[in-house]
Give the backbone structure.
Amino acid sequence: MGFLVYYIFPTVLLLALIRKYRESKWGKCNNNIQLDGKTVIITGANSGIGFEVAKELASRKASVILACRTLTKAKETCVTIQQNIKEAVLVPMELDLASLKSIKKFSDEIKKNYKEIHILINNAGVSYPSSTRLETADNFEIHFGVNYLGHFYLTNLLLDELNISSGKSRVVVVASSLHERGEINLDNLNNEKLTSKNLYANSKLANIYFTQELARRTKDKNINVYACCPGWVYTGLFRYTIRWYHFFVVAPVAFFFMRSSGQGAQTPIYCATEPKLENETGLLYRDCKLYDSKAIFYDSISTKLWVKTEEMIKDALKVK
């Protein structure tokens, strides 16, 4: 008993205090902006960060479209949210970002039913071991196709709806600080040469280039664009890349650094709602504040990546 009192309890208390200190540095969206009359689209809203963002924005009285890979998942998520938020206005829709056909069908439905989209949160993402060499329905490398190109196509299809008549809409691109390990090789975007080592990081770097270029191309429209890093979050995203034996190494580190989905959702919520960002666009945020990336960005790559992506989508659609 003495051992527990003098060693174990103080150690546990110390670890808990360190964890609390870490949490205090992660940032929290403290505004209480209500979203009455606003229409929001969230991709990947059935789990993780997307689910938490959907709950929060629904509680702020937005009409939230849950864009999920299957309609069943979207409907189940609506039921779950409405159990806690009775007045939530939720619209379940199917959107498979691994299929250009599905993205087009989704955007057509949006255009038919909504004149304006006030907030688009490009949240959905995948992560697989690079050795799997998975592809989308249109033969794009899975990370490039889903995390980046799918959202690129979706956003461009909805630009008219995002160019709202009053105020400014917001496009929030959920990226990752892992973009700092990525690279953009314009001759190997789809990993045709099978030489890319960190495909997930590459896709997240492409997300940030997309944010910057979209901001430039919409500077005369009523659209603001933000990229954000949610931090290292405990979600199902890396379920295919982390093996059971990794937890022996990861668990001690995760205790101090890994966030819950709710904590990871704070910066996306901040970018979607914070009034102070009204005059900002094309920037990157983490912990509910501007983030100074270690990556070096080039305007020339941003432009070339945009043009190359458009060409790749056109070629894929011709095949179909």
Q: What stands out?
A: The chain has eleven helices and eight strands. The radius of gyration is 20 Å.
